[in-house]
Amino acid sequence: MIELTNSVSDGVAVIHCTGRLNMKAAPHLKKRVDAIVAEGLPRIVVDLTGVPFVDSSGLGALIGGLKTARLAGGDLRIACAGDQILAVPALTNLDRILRPHATIEDARGEW
Amino acid sequence: MNGERYTLSGLAVPEGLDSLHDLLARASRDHQSLPPEDVMMLEMAVMEIAGNVIEHGKPSGAVVWNFTLDVGPPLHATLADSGEEYVETWTGQMPDELAESGRGLALADAVLDQLLYERQGATNVWTMVRSVDTKS
Lengths: 111, 136
Description:
The structure holds two protein chains of two kinds.
Chain A: E1 3-9, E2 12-18, H1 26-38, E3 43-50, H2 56-71, E4 75-79, H3 83-91, E5 100-101, H4 104-108
Parallel strand pairs in A: 2-3, 3-4, 4-5
Antiparallel strand pairs in A: 1-2
Chain B: E1 5-11, H1 16-30, H2 36-56, E2 64-70, E3 75-81, H3 104-111, E4 114-120, E5 123-130
Helix pairs in contact in B: 1-2, 2-3
């Protein structure tokens, strides 16, 4: 099962994920994003350092979280994705809206 | 590569996905000449098809699957399940970019050289073929 831990600094929430982001894990990630946005933190970076594999359900959770964050005036960005994860948005034409960032700092950008 | 076959049977439930990951990892370890990218692409397809069986297979939670991997080359996998006939229509198109579901089969198709569904008697059979880059 995936493990999710959060940290917050300068108004940006970072969710650190460990484990496969698949159909078992996807609802947990989506729920976590919803909770963080509900706390008034719509700027979210999902740290995928510890995620060896993502499937279309995991991708769906990231898209769902991105929509929730954007509706609240923020955004969701992904960082530190491995080769397999980098392949998925490219294969599904989603790399434009779910642009991968090499590091958490890169993902934070101007936030 | 010597054409070795790997098999696995079990219930089509989310916990079964881990067993499929483990089997593919074992095949990859046993056959280090297999390019990791090709195994990774096949793994993506297998997980999408397996996820589809878990999600749509009826009766839910009671469907049994049998997975077979021939390392080939090419990599040739079949997932046969005891569920009712798969009747979803599949266009092969990716859904809208903000859709949260509906990409599984399109993603599987994108990473395979061949993706085939057949109803064989009382069994659904998904065949997945990924050619292997033997140049490297």
